Amino acid sequence: MAGVSVDNASRTIRITGDNVTLDGYDFALHGGYQVAIMAANTTISNSNFSVGTNQGAYLIYGGTSASNLTVIHNTFDGSSIGNNLSYIRYSGSGEVTLEYNWFKNFPGHIVEFTQANGSPSFSVDYKYNLIEQGSLHEGYHLNFLQFGGGTASSVDVEFNTTYQTPQVSGGEGFQFYSNTQGGVIQDAVMAYNTMIATGGNAGSAMSYMLHANSYNDNSSAPKGSVHDNFFDLQAAWGAFYSAPSGWSFSKNMDMRTGKIINSKNKLLPVVRQREQQPPLR
Q: What parts of the chain have a pLDDT lower than 50?
C-alpha cells in the first residue's frame, strides 16, 4: 500500500507514509517480520508477531520522526528468544496507545521509550493488556515499561493483568522514572491492575511490581498516583520498590491476605464501615 515498503532480505516492513493502518497480518511468517515506523498516525491491529529465525532488536520500532502510534488487539510471542531486546521501542512523539494486546514469552522488556531530552513530548496509554512471562533471555532485566529520557506528558497504566513465574533472569514490573538525567514523567497513574508473581520463593520471579521515581536525584517523576491495584506477591520481594514523596498510594490489595498494602509494603487491615440497619417497623 502507499507509504509502506517491504524489505524481504531483512524481513523489515517500513512505514514512511502518514495514516497507515496494518490490520490482520501474520508478521510471524517466514521467520518473522519487524515493523519500522517513520511517519505519523500508524495503527497496527489484530495482528500476530513472533520472534523467529529472523532476529531483529525489536518487533516494532518507532523512530524519531514517528508520531502517534496505536498498537491494539495484537499477539506478541517471543518463544524463540534470540537477540531481541524488547517487543517495542519508540523514540518519537505524540500519543502511544497499547491496548488489548497479549504480550507473552518476551526477552526482557515489553516497551522501551528512548526519547532524547529536549525532543517533542509524548504520552503513554497502556491499558487492558495481558502480560505473561518475561525475562526469558539470560542476563536481560525484566521491565513491562521503561523510559530512557525526554518528556512524557502523561503515563496511564490501567486494567492490565500480568503473570510471572521464575525465569532465567529477573527484574521489576512497571518503571516510572527516566534512565537519563533530565528526563521528565508527568501525570503518572497506575490503577486497577492485577499482578501475579508466583511459583517460587520471595524474589524468585521478580523483585517489585512498581519502581517509581528513583533515578539519581528523584527528579524524573515528581508525582504520581497508585491505587486500586491487586497483587499476588508470593514470588516477589514486594509491591513497591520505593515510595517517593509526591506520590500517593491507596487501596492496593494483597490478594493472598485480603489486606491493604501501604507504600512501605506493610499489610494493613481493611477498615469496613458498619452497614446501616433498616429501621424497625
A: none
